[in-house]
Automatic annotation (TrEMBL):
InterPro entries: Znf_C2H2_type. It comes from Coilia grayii (Gray's grenadier anchovy). This is C2H2-type domain-containing protein. It comes from the Eukaryota. Residues 35-58 form the C2H2-type domain. Gene3D superfamilies: Classic Zinc Finger.
């Protein structure tokens, strides 16, 4: 006997059941009690059925050797027999109405019925052996048969165990820690699954402790009374030991007492974190100058946790591609095969993201949009659809307020996510099953049309000219253009659109492109053209289906085929079965026809369309165009949700969609084609690209929203709703992972018998030997496979199979024999992963294990020439529909070349080739001239002579595109651009010897210099900071600052064992840490010390702008780190030295200024005048043009105006027009921090205040004090004179 989940070997069934309750009992979804015997495959819903199963089927395993002779006290029975025979004899006395005393030693219980005897023996003596029976006498050696006899099992009696540890106490198999963990799991489920608030949970725990405490004290009193009754002193050590053990073994008292590990919410949180592997979400700030934040759950850490779960790892399939040429999964799609990372032969992880906005409050209430949240979930696509559709398989990635995401942009919102995926692309995660690191990337992002267009960077208004993210067709041409004539977007074309948008600087979209996609900008293997599949849920079930149902039903009512009331009566009284009872459609209000849609959710609309032929089909005449529209739509929907496709099916689907659109336009000329109609036109092509679309729809993702809405509704906590939701979700995931419920088993096999494979049917035997070659016995259940076979509306059969056939063909043959079916047919099954929608059955593994609903689809009905005459429309009056696998009306199929990834312009170290340079599109007049010139050049090889204006326009456009990526191109770069120009426009080739573009190279080079001067005058940061030195130092491009201010460590070398790359990795980790709202201060402190050498090289050699330095080293601008950085540079304690000197010199300065009152007052007035003139109404106003400043925000009211010293509300430091530090408590501290920042950034003192800073440095801080200027030395002497 052994637990199949963790290999625990119990001594008896009771121990096993307790082990299940502690370790493997599932939560509110139900328990799974598995038979412990290795050759038995049964599992059960309850512990009672498991005990009964063992008693009925595994009695022979519990046998012992006879060692006793039994004698009956009520008759002359004396026999050498088993305890089974002796107990059977005693039951005979009980059946005769006699009263029997319990036969076990030390028990005097009187029994008068067989039932009471069985119950008493099971409860009081279940672990006793035959030697404990009063009338049992030991046998002499060799005096009796030593064969084995079976015990009798009745009503849960397990009998003795063969295990040597059977007599050991059960406490050795589990201890108080296991009970404590079970109790903690209950409290965690209360908070995360049952949504009990923390305060309510605490109240329950306190009351539970009080009840248990009183109950234990009552038990102690009862034990004391019993011991006193039997002569045991109540003060004896034995009694004290018993009562003490009673308290120690009570987990509720031990863990919820005043100092118990689960007594308070704080202690419970610590316990959960330690024992449940909770991966807490991290809170990030959008910007360090604001308080708006979002939460992120690290994707790589989540993957590592999941890969430690054996059950999860066993369900990962790295290769799901079909070998039959059909499209069965996303790995069969064109985009997957074209992905440079995923198409490699080594195992790769494919991630599917989902993004959506949802309201956690009443969308019609006063809090509308106040708590609207943007959520991004993700799922591992390497799981099969039936596993990844589980809500526990869908992981949380990012949560943010909708307004914040729109204000700050997707790039900041997704920055932690993209960093983690970059690491996944480069390094991968370790997979224990493969014993190697597996890389991965994002394959696609599932979203509704608005969310997909927004994240991908396309227009978010579907009335725009180019609203489609799949093609560039004009809105006005959608209705008249054939599907095969749509001009699809390509990667190269999209990249050129983005470049045109960026180079123009206009907010007007370019062919529907509004901005660059935040994901493709950060990831190497993702592109918006290949990464955003359509969504069947929103396009069909919440878009086209309710709209066309409303239009067609209204037309049918207008024709008098039925009334509105009759329609609702048919819908309401239809006998819905199975899942349709839950998803049955609502009645249709008259207002729905005015709105143009019947409304309803996706499940209801799907059910109504699917069952419509059976609901009102008998009222429809033949050749009714409105009915044909609906039946066409029904078939299109059935095709769209198929789990597998062949080329013939896609060809049929293309033809059907095209015919359906024309039929709608002909029947309803005023009906406007919606954008969703156009999206559906792309479905056949997109199935080629993404595989079956139903495996990438948003149905299951949207179900995840309900959890967060439930949390907010029950907790009513809006203080930090994002962190609350993220924390609750992660705790819930940890709870399910701990309980083993990520993939719980919903199939229960209660009747299975072992069979030798040689006794099986030949087909079954060959199937078993093929899949399990080393197996010589199997377990067969009489009801393991239950089928409901739909042959026709009036012929639905119930079929039982002894096992799962090895193939679909074998299943067809079995059905032919059992049901007498003749002719060719295919099978469809109801897939529970997709709302029990019918899907074509291509693999036997797709069938659910316990029971399935099958539909026979006959293929002996030929299609007519016109697909509009398909018998599928009249399925309410026929017994079969056309086979979707074999039907084909056209051999045409669109084929596209493999997409090539656009190679962007060079980085700082890469040299572009002319073929990779994208010459921009010029103005219309220039393009027309070039087009004419190119035609002439191809015919006559005669170049054109561009005018001065034309040449200037060409050079300006090219230089603008160059500066979009690099402000300092070198000559090699310029050669590439000049060569690319004459390659694209050969009419610009120059006559004479040389390359043909030498003149263009010179023109472009001078244009670059002129353009850089324009940017410098305009204040462009990147060129202003790199201004060349004076003529005397013209040989150097950059002016490197030297150690002029007594820096001890000006350019220190890297520490031993450290390199530029390793230090930069530490910088990236530190930058990521500082983005958190609550960061690890010790980690920041240590990392800043280690990376000091790298930081100084950047500051001194590169001389970055303060804003750039702040972005790369955000921790450098924290108050504590300013002081530490100053100490590392100068070995001086900044604030201590400055404050002590200030305290020391202030009295002397005051005396000096009093003596020089007149002159000093005038000078102070001059210094303060600029500050008084500053306007503090807007940050841009008081920071514009300011290089170095201390900004004081004063109280501005009538009372403050009359005070000589108004209240200071805030003090900030401004460097290079940016507030780099604020919330400083006083002015002296601000001056100290300013000095520290000037040293840390290696900035020169401002010319107007150079003597002031020199005094602070050389007098107050005594840095390079021996080398003072005349003014500073004079002031120093006078200060020391007043100190005497």
């Amino acid at each position: 006997m052994q637990c199949k989940h963790c290999k625990f070997a119990p001594s008896d069934v009771t121990t096993l059941l307790n082990h299940y309750r502690l370790k493997h009992a599932q939560g509110h979804q139900g328990k799974n009690w598995t038979c412990p015997y290795s050759d038995c495959v049964c599992n059960f819903r309850t512990s009672g059925t498991l005990k009964s199963h063992i008693a009925r089927n595994h009695v022979e395993r519990k046998s012992i050797t006879i060692t006793s002779t039994f004698k009956c006290d009520y008759c002359s029975f004396l026999s050498t027999c088993s305890a089974l025979d002796f107990f059977t004899h005693l039951r005979g006395h009980l059946r005769n109405g006699e009263e029997v005393t319990c036969p076990f030693v030390g028990c005097y219980h009187k029994i008068n019925s067989v039932a009471n005897f069985n119950i008493h023996k099971c409860r009081k003596h279940k672990n006793h052996t035959d030697t404990d029976i009063k009338s049992a006498a030991p046998l002499e050696a060799g005096s009796a048969d030593t064969g084995c006899h079976d015990y009798d099992f009745h009503d849960g009696d397990e009998g003795p165990s063969m295990h040597p540890e059977a007599d050991e106490p059960f406490a050795e198999n589990f201890d108080i820690d296991a009970l404590e963990h079970k109790l903690a799991s209950l409290f965690l489920s209360m908070q995360t699954v049952l949504h009990v608030t923390k305060s309510a949970t605490q109240k329950i725990i306190l009351d539970l402790y009080d009840i248990e405490k009183l109950a234990n004290e009552l038990a102690v009193k009862k034990i004391t009374d019993i011991c006193t009754k039997h002569g045991i002193d109540k003060d004896s050590e034995i009694l004290q030991e018993i009562t003490g053990a009673l308290f120690e073994c009570n987990p509720i008292i031990q863990t919820t007492s005043e100092r118990g590990r689960l007594s308070t919410q704080y202690r419970r949180d610590l316990y959960f974190q330690e024992h449940f592997s909770i991966l807490k979400p991290t809170e990030y700030l959008y910007d360090r100058t604001c308080k708006e934040s979002f939460i992120y759950v690290p994707i790589n850490d989540t993957l590592n946790n999941m890969l430690c779960n054996v059950d999860f790892v066993d369900k990962i399939v790295f290769n799901q591609s079909s070998t039959s040429g059909q499209l069965n999964s996303f790995q069969d799609g064109h985009f997957y095969k074209a992905n440079a990372l995923l198409c490699e032969e080594d195992p790769k992880m494919s991630l599917g993201l989902y993004i959506d906005e949802f309201e956690v409050c009443n969308p019609l209430g006063t809090s509308k949009k106040e708590h609207k949240i943007v959520a991004m979930y993700w799922v591992l696509l390497n799981l099969l659809p039936k596993y990844r559709s589980s809500l526990t398989s869908i992981q949380l990635a990012v949560l943010g307020k909708s307004d914040d995401v729109h204000n700050f942009g997707y790039e900041k919102f997704l920055s932690p996510l993209t960093r983690d995926i970059q690491l996944l692309e480069q390094n991968g995660v370790f997979v224990p099953r493969l014993n190697q690191n597996v890389k991965g990337t994002v394959f696609c992002v599932c979203a509704d049309n608005l969310g997909a267009n927004s994240l991908a960077g396309f227009v978010e208004c579907f009335s725009a000219t180019n609203y489609c993210r799949f093609c560039v067709i004009d809105k006005k041409d959608v209705k008249s253009t054939r599907i095969r004539d749509f001009k699809l977007r390509t990667i190269e074309e999209h990249n050129s659109h983005v470049e045109m948008l960026q180079s123009s600087g206009s907010m007007h979209p370019v062919f529907g492109v509004k901005r660059e996609c935040a994901l493709s900008k950060a990831l190497s293997y993702f592109h918006p053209v290949t990464g955003f599949p359509p969504d069947v849920l929103h396009d069909l079930f919440e878009g086209i289906v309710p709209e066309e149902l409303a239009v067609c039903l209204q037309a049918l009512i207008a024709k008098g085929l039925f009334t509105h009331d009759e329609l609702n009566k048919y819908i309401k009284t239809f006998p819905y079965q199975g899942p349709d009872k839950v998803n049955k459609p609502k009645i249709i209000a008259k207002s729905c026809f005015k709105k143009g849609t019947i409304g309803g959710n996706a499940h209801e609309n799907w059910t109504l369309l699917r069952l419509l032929p059976l609901i009102i089909g008998h009222r429809i005449p033949e050749n009714e165009p409105c009915w044909e529209i609906l039946m066409d739509l029904k078939v299109i929907v059935e095709l769209a949700v198929c789990a597998a496709f062949s080329e013939e099916t896609l060809s049929y689907m293309t033809s059907l969609i095209n015919d359906h659109r024309h039929l709608v336009i002909e029947t309803f000329p005023d009906f406007s084609i919606r954008p969703k109609h156009h999206f559906v036109d792309h479905y056949p092509h997109l199935i080629h690209c993404f595989g079956p679309l139903v495996s990438l729809w948003t149905m299951r993702f949207e179900a995840k929203h309900s959890y967060f809405k439930k949390v907010v509704h029950d907790t009513q906590n809006f203080k930090n709703v994002l962190l609350t939701l993220g924390t609750k979700h992660q705790e819930m995931q940890a709870y399910y992972s701990d309980r083993g419920e990520l993939f719980w088993q919903s199939v229960y096999i209660e009747n299975a018998e072992p069979f030798s494979t040689c006794n099986l049917d030949e087909t079954l035997r060959s199937a078993v030997e093929k899949k399990y070659p080393n197996t010589d016995s199997v377990s067969v259940s009489s009801d393991v496979m239950l089928l409901r076979v739909y042959i026709s509306p009036d012929n639905i059969r119930r079929v039982k199979l002894p096992g799962l056939p090895e193939s679909v063909d074998r299943l067809k043959n079995i059905l032919r024999e059992m049901l007498g079916l003749e002719g060719g047919f295919s099978l469809q099954f109801e897939d529970p992963d997709f709302g029990n929608a019918l899907c074509n059955l291509h693999s036997i593994d797709e069938l659910p294990a316990d029971k399935s609903v099958l539909k026979v689809v006959w293929d002996n009905i030929a299609l007519s020439d016109s697909p509009t005459q398909s018998p599928a429309r009249y399925m309410s009056d026929t017994s079969s529909v056309t086979s979707l696998d074999t039907a084909s009306t056209s051999s045409h199929s669109d084929t596209l070349g493999s997409p090539t990834f656009y190679r962007k312009l060079k980085t700082a170290k890469d040299l572009p080739s002319p073929g990779s340079i994208q010459i921009p599109t010029f103005s219309l007049d220039v393009e027309l001239r070039l087009k004419q010139g190119n035609e002439i050049y191809r015919q006559t090889k005669t170049p054109i002579a561009p005018s001065r204006e034309m040449k200037s326009a060409i050079c300006t456009a090219i230089v603008e595109s160059i500066f979009a990526t690099d402000c300092y191109p070198d000559k090699a770069d310029m050669k590439c651009y000049a060569a690319a120009l004459v390659t694209k426009h050969p009419c610009l080739t120059e006559d004479g010897p040389g390359t043909g573009y030498d003149g263009w190279l010179v023109s472009l080079w001078f244009k670059v210099g002129n353009y850089r001067n324009k940017l410098r005058k305009a204040g462009h940061a990147e060129v202003s900071v790199n201004k060349k030195k004076a003529d005397s130092e013209e040989g150097m491009k950059f002016r490197l600052k030297k150690a002029r201010r007594a820096e001890v460590n000006f350019l220190p070398p890297h520490a031993e064992g450290q390199s530029h790359e390793s230090l930069d990795d530490l910088r990236l980790q530190m930058t990521k840490e500082t983005e958190k709202k609550i960061f690890d201060a010790n980690f920041i402190k240590d990392t800043m010390a280690v990376t000091f050498s790298l930081r100084r090289r950047e500051v001194v050699e590169i001389q970055p702008l303060v804003q750039v330095l702040r972005d790369r080293w955000p921790a450098l601008f924290h108050k504590d780190e300013i002081c530490r950085e100053f100490f590392r540079i100068t070995q001086i304690d900044l604030m201590t030295s400055f404050r002590s000197s200030l305290e020391k010199f202030t009295p002397a300065l005051l005396k000096y200024y009093r003596k020089k009152k007149e002159h000093a007052g005038s000078e102070l007035t001059t210094l303060l005048a600029p500050l008084d003139d500053q306007d503090t109404d807007a940050e841009e106003t008081y920071t514009k043009g300011v290089k170095i400043s201390i900004l004081s925000v004063l109280e501005d009211d009538g009372v403050a105006a009359r005070r000589s010293l108004p209240n200071v509300l805030n003090i900030a430091i401004i460097l290079e027009e940016a507030v780099v530090l604020k919330d400083i408590k006083d002015l002296p501290s601000a001056v100290g921090y300013l000095i520290g920042l000037l040293y840390a950034c290696n900035m020169e003192y401002p010319k107007e205040l150079r003597y002031t800073f020199e005094v602070i440095q050389k007098v107050f801080l005594e840095l390079d004090a021996q080398d003072c200027s005349a003014r500073a030395l004079s002031l120093r002497r006078k200060i020391f004179e007043f100190l005497r």
